[in-house]
Specification:
The protein is built from 13 helices and 11 strands. By secondary structure, it is an alpha/beta fold. 44% of the residues lie in helices and 15% in strands. The chain has a 7-stranded parallel β-sheet, with helices on both faces. A two-stranded antiparallel ribbon has the order 1-11. Strands 2-3 form a two-stranded antiparallel sheet. The protein is globular and about 65 Å long. The two termini are 19 Å apart.
Length: 322
């Protein structure tokens, strides 16, 4: 990679379109012990999975949640934010045979990933099941949930993984069927909080307002756990979303390690015969060219696009060029 980056710097055509090139040095991990409030069985389950100690931001977030504080965690990608709500949920299921949790994710793919990881943790945590509960504790309840199984999910689920749309359409309007769930709801997780902005964010905030009102009606006051990418106003955004004071675990407290990073911002060049109109070359084609060079250099590469169509076009171009 160092040779590849050196080649880029020496490429006059490439550098002509580079607006900024910043380097972030390698950062070592910062660890902290497990919070004393965390159930010893959860600690044992994490240790069994090779987690001997937590990152500093994980320990701070779990401690705040276990103290009953609404908490928002702003940390880098792959920084272990999920553990900040997995551990408190497992702790609650251990201590209270009726405890429930609701986790909201913006995409079905993320929901399925979380289903696998949360089930893996709970498999190592011998929880106390409610009297009517079956062996399964965690269920997805979204548009793909079979109609014939929805009544069973309402009755048996200790943890529901869903999304804001399904909460609005499929759960809150039928709250009488979810009375036991709302009565014992301990935690509400809002993952990828930064995606709830603008008009869509306003809609989600109103859905959360309805959720809190129903929880109060059924006698519960759940703790909200919000996770976000590194945004500049994480606390303000979280407090506007749930309309309550929030404890911030900022990205400056992120204890996860990462290697040296180079952030290169490329501005597509103006098309010569369209200079009068200021039209630039497609950013998708620029991304294709850069990704093709990375792949040719043997570098593992991830490309993100704004839509599924763009993703498929980019993939097709890369398969053709490679």
């Amino acid at each position: 990679m160092l040779n590849f980056l050196a080649d880029l710097r020496n490429d006059a055509d490439f550098m002509r379109d580079v607006s900024a090139w910043e380097r972030a040095p390698e950062v070592a991990a910062r660890h902290a012990p497990f919070p004393a409030r965390l159930h010893e069985r959860v600690v044992a389950a994490l240790q069994k999975r090779g987690i001997e100690q937590l990152y500093s931001h994980q320990a701070a977030a779990i401690e705040a949640v276990l103290m009953g504080q609404h908490t928002v965690i702003a940390a880098s990608a792959a920084g272990g934010k999920s553990l900040c709500f997995h551990a408190p949920i497992a702790d609650a299921l251990l201590r209270d045979p009726n405890a429930r949790a609701l986790c909201l994710f913006p995409t079905k793919a993320l929901t399925q990933d979380q289903l696998v990881s949360l089930n893996a943790l709970l498999a190592d945590v011998p929880t106390n099941k409610a009297p009517s509960s079956k062996s399964k504790l965690v269920y997805c309840y979204d548009g793909d949930a079979p109609q014939g199984q929805r009544a069973d999910i309402r009755r048996d689920a200790r943890v529901i993984l869903s999304n804001a749309d399904m909460l609005h359409i499929g759960i809150l309007p039928h709250h009488t069927r979810w009375a036991a769930f709302f009565k014992h709801l301990r935690y509400v997780v809002i993952d990828e909080m930064h995606m709830y902005r603008g008009v869509f964010g306003s809609h989600v905030a109103n859905v959360i307002r309805r959720l809190r009102r129903l929880c109060q009606f059924y006698g519960s006051r759940p703790v909200f756990i919000l996770a976000s990418a590194t945004i500049g106003n994480a606390r303000e955004h979280a407090e506007r979303l749930i309309e309550a004071p929030v404890t911030l675990i900022p990205d400056s407290d992120d204890g996860s390690p990462h290697g040296e990073q180079h952030v290169i911002i490329v501005n597509p060049p103006i098309i010569p015969d369209q200079a009068a109109q200021g039209l630039r070359r497609s950013s998708l084609l620029i991304a294709r060219d850069i990704a093709a060079r990375l792949i040719a250099a043997g570098a593992q590469t991830i490309c993100f696009a704004r839509s599924r169509q763009d993703t498929e076009l980019l993939l097709g171009c890369l398969l053709y060029t490679s």
